[in-house]
Amino acid sequence: MTKTLDNLLEGCMLIGFDWTYLYVNEAAARHGLQDRDKLLGRAMLEMYPGVEQSDVFRHYRLAMEDRIPQHFETSFTFADGTVNWYELAVEPVPEGVFILSLDITQRKQSEEALETAREFAENLIEAMLDGFSVLDKDGRSVNPNPALCLMTGFSRGEPIDRYPPFPYWPPEEDEPIRAAFEKTMKGEVGHFELTYMRKNGERFPVVVSPSVMRDQHGNILNYIATVKDMSREHEALDALERSESWLRSIYENTNTGIASTDSSGRVSGFNEAFRSM
């Protein structure tokens, strides 16, 4: 049996009622950043000063003194400042407690990195000036950002957790919007010029740019889309067109002759008043 335990990838320890290490395999010694031979016959409190103040020892004590099995994940800070994470199963046995350990530090670090990346992405989306929407693989709205809510006038509680048509889809624009939506659901992404509706009923132009998020196997996880309010751009274009129309009217109807020249000084254009001069 001892030989079998010696070869396990999991750490195995047998600790007596006086907290002395009665058995330690190589994996457990590595988990404790110690040599196996240095642990055997020595007391835990001697090898890890201050351990009695740790969360790990609290669980050990419950198993040792109250005979209550323990199964938990915890971190432990060693004397050199190293912090490792472990999954531990502690079973009361006649000799004291038997402990199985797994070093889950790498998994915890990966989870922490993933959580950091998730928080960064969420903060980025929250700070975006353009609208941003996330749909699940079935097309249900799950996460419109503040910019989209501000743009449409609908709160997160209104467009979220529902399927299309969404409240910012004008009824008369259902056909082109639904066509763009269905293309997106098929993975045919691009840029769609559409008309949305604010909560007060005002219609406004948008450019919707969707994309598809897939897992490593190509399965669809989510659909995401940026929504740009084109109202100002359209207003500026309308103002420019009105200005050009006004200038053209002056050019064509004024009694003052107007001519334009190219870079060499040649007349390249003139109005009727100039022609009559």
From TrEMBL:
Residues 117-188, 243-277 form the PAS domain. GO terms for molecular function: protein histidine kinase activity. InterPro entries: PAC, PAS, PAS-assoc_C, PAS-like_dom_sf, PAS_4, Sensor_kinase/Photoreceptor. Gene3D superfamilies: PAS domain. Keywords: Kinase, Phosphoprotein, Transferase. Its EC number is 2.7.13.3. Coiled coil: none annotated. It catalyses: ATP + protein L-histidine = ADP + protein N-phospho-L-histidine. Residues 190-242 form the PAC domain. This is histidine kinase. It comes from Acidihalobacter aeolianus. The lineage of its organism: Bacteria, Pseudomonadati, Pseudomonadota, Gammaproteobacteria, Chromatiales.
